[in-house]
């Protein structure tokens, strides 16, 4: 069984003297590709694959693949966004607690939505979204800022320069705001799942303090439009 | 000629005075500082105030302006006149205007305007204007006195403009490099000998008639084996009851696991003699155990008995997952084995705890920085 290179790593560690040691390195050789867990992709018959997918399959056939991380699985219940959020909520490595909080949050969302569903009149019942995963994804999407600010120092003064954000950064900011909001602006006695579900439902409807924070950021970026040329990337 | 600068302001204004006779300033409060000889009066009308009048006009300093400067238009006109005059002269002498050379002109002038002067330079001459008017630097400023070159006042405009342009190119290149760095692209196309050779080989291969040189090209090409072929899959074994089973081993961090998967089962999984519900109370670990089965769609079809030691909760789960995936290879077609590999089920996770370094508190965390 081809073991991913521990030998290569020691070689690299020894070769660091002439060059600067890279801080972000991984135990895997750079030739290792990311695993693809989605079952449907493998069940597709070969005729239906697009050119890109065909090339990808051919490449994957000759390259080693990294091991799937413990949070990832092919079951319908594993969602990469949800696991990312759980990891961000985790404190001191207590994954069990974080995961239970997450599941309680989703349950709370479902309960609230169901309550609304049963109270609503017939014509409005279809408009109410009961799937907590859909609500979670939509709420996060609504919280994502489009443009961010970056501090650039020129001539002693620090300016806030509007800067485009990458997808990862947007997702990270949305999740971070959610979590900090729920940790800080709540009454001492309210539990995290309760507060989180509340915030998620508000964000789903484009209301709430996190959406407001996003709008404030957008306004600041608009106001500092004049400094946009300071950006060199 | 207008000169800028406060000291010469008076001179400029006096230059104007040649045309206007007296100086008028529009709504200026302060008198000209160095105007000792003049007096100033206030007029009754408008905001105009007479600053100073002079009876004697400032004389033009002939020496200071240098040799007389000719404009390009002037030189051009002189050349036209010369050519015209040359043709007239040729007609006058009765010769062909097209083939009238400078020697012929000299002879003609000497004939028409005989002169007894000893100094050859003093005799009448008709030469091309470029020989008569000395070559001068073209005037480097326009009619309004503003110089054409933006670096005229540095004293060395060509040198400084060259430096300026080169620096602009340097900044451009740096900007391009920054952009590439941000996008994580390589800074330069690595054009070493190897890549050039590869480029040439690719050109060769792309041609239609490469078959004649096939064996030469084969010397440089290497078969990249399909990853799957490196591994040998054990065939199924059968125990006393006739049930097919297979074994697999797996490891993760410090945990080592062995798994035995039996066919015709009900989906019962036992770890170290204990049911997984009791051994792994956390949902995530059980999910990991079931991952290979769920991926292949064989959840209720196999029984599993595993033994695991070492590591922690998650490490043991990962080890068993790898062991069960390896064992399942024997039950499944080659294509599905390839799918399992691409899903990351058959690779041993190499990530282990990073060692602590001396001088640091942990593998990455440094000691608290104290200013003094």
From TrEMBL, chain A:
Coiled coil: none annotated. GO terms for cellular component: mitochondrial inner membrane; mitochondrial small ribosomal subunit. One of its GO terms (biological process) is translation. It comes from the Eukaryota. It is found in: Mitochondrion. Its main location: mitochondrion. Keywords: Mitochondrion, Ribonucleoprotein, Ribosomal protein, Transit peptide. Residues 68-225 form the Small ribosomal subunit protein uS7 domain. InterPro entries: Ribosomal_uS7, Ribosomal_uS7_dom, Ribosomal_uS7_dom_sf. PANTHER family: RIBOSOMAL PROTEIN S7. Belongs to the universal ribosomal protein uS7 family. This is Small ribosomal subunit protein uS7m. It comes from Malurus cyaneus samueli.
TrEMBL record, chain B:
This is Small ribosomal subunit protein uS9m. GO terms for cellular component: mitochondrial inner membrane; mitochondrial small ribosomal subunit. GO terms for molecular function: RNA binding; structural constituent of ribosome. Residues 349-372 are annotated as: Disordered. It comes from the Eukaryota. InterPro entries: Ribosomal_Su5_D2-typ_SF (IPR020568), Ribosomal_uS9 (IPR000754), Ribosomal_uS9_CS (IPR020574), Ribsml_uS5_D2-typ_fold_subgr (IPR014721). The keyword Metal-binding does not apply. GO terms for biological process: translation. Belongs to the universal ribosomal protein uS9 family. It is found in: Mitochondrion. Keywords: Mitochondrion, Ribonucleoprotein, Ribosomal protein, Transit peptide. Pfam families: Ribosomal_S9 (PF00380). The keyword DNA damage does not apply.
